[in-house]
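A favour, since you know our structure tokens better than I do. Just paste the record in under my message, thanks.
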Amino acid sequence: MAANDRPNLLLIMSDEHAPMFSGPYGHPLVQTPNLDRLAADGVVFQNAYCNSPLCTPSRMSFMTGRYVHHIGAWDNSMPIPSDAVTWAHRLRAIGYDAVLSGKQHFYGPDQLHGFRAQLARDLHAERHHPIFDWSAGTQEAPQPWGALDRAGPGTTEEIEVDDQVEAAALDYLRDPARHRQPWALNVSFMAPHFPFVVPQRFWDLYPEAEVDMPTIPPGHLDNQHPVYRRLRRMFGMADFSEELVRRGRVGYYGLITYLDEKIGRLLDALEETGQRENTVIAYFSDHGEMAGEHGMWRKSNFYEQSVRVPLQLAWSGHLPAGRRVNGAVSLVDLVATIVEAAGASPEGIDGDSLLALARGEAAEWKDEAFSEYLAHGVARPMAMLRRGQYKLNYSLDDPVELYDLASDPGEFHDLGGDPVYQGIREELRRTLLTYWDPVALERRVRRSQRDRMLIRAAETGGADEGSAQQQWYASDSSGGPPN
């Protein structure tokens, strides 16, 4: 592909946006006119998934196009090495200007991982992340999660940084130098990640009395799978009052609309500078947010609100407008798509390009998505395999979960122990375990935790990592450190 034939790439990434809380995915209240506009101009993937429902693992998987168990980015304190090949390396090797504006959670000394430049701060990469020791099991939070107490109108450092991220990205797009070579701009916002604090005008869009409450059938929380009960204890998920839940959701919805406005200004800048026609636009998130559903907030699990993500693609003249794709896909497939659109080498990527599927030209599609979780809140490896209408969740030494998302989109009826579905359960379990070995993974994760704790103790003069965890609980409960 000649350099002047290569499209530009505008990759807009958010943090903690569950797709069902937006207009393109059918929410009746959340206002996202610019995501609606992008949906009308391009393709919406109805069933897209992250490859790990936590910031750093998901983002490192996205940067490399590889599953977490292939790159070893287990948790928020484990970055990829500097010699790991990213899509930014691949694109710059063929003449692209690849730059980052905002968060990519590059925890550690390498803040670029193939990008030529970072245009704005990555606030979450600046913050300390403790190392959680699986040998200690899952700990119970010393107090309820406090982010809902903080929800309200106002501003935060996160808001200030996201404003800077937008301004730097707009300056980049408007620079005449953009017409000299193909470019790939990754604009990555922290919104709508908690704290659920948003400027007043966005808060006022969603009166508390009108905000929908989570759907939790009677008795559901008492009968949840053991892994969710442990996660709720670990993250301090108390029986929050209706007022707190409503305020948390008001803040979350307001942050989504705040984010949507920024997306709109990026789209406007493309049009103003005559670059829209030759730019591939992608909007997606690193993972979702439970927002009170199933009695949970945050992520770190395989419920749809946590592991499913928005994914929208637009490319004038190359992708259809207003198309919706139902097949299961994941973010490693997005990476393969970016690489194919740019004309770079896809060697070593775990995903498959979505371009033919988006055009309706794929004779067959795997209709499959894989995700794994190997961080805090659990003490054993967890994985999800979605194929067709069924989703299997596997947690080592726990009962296997199975959900029929066609008949049970809310995931309230676990079919894992139903003999009628034994064949489907075993087929999915065998498929998962052919390429994902939880026993070997547990050994690798625990060894990594021990090594990192030893190194950190040497660097801090023997400071107790347990104290760092308690500080994390205390500050995180007020909406401080991100995860």
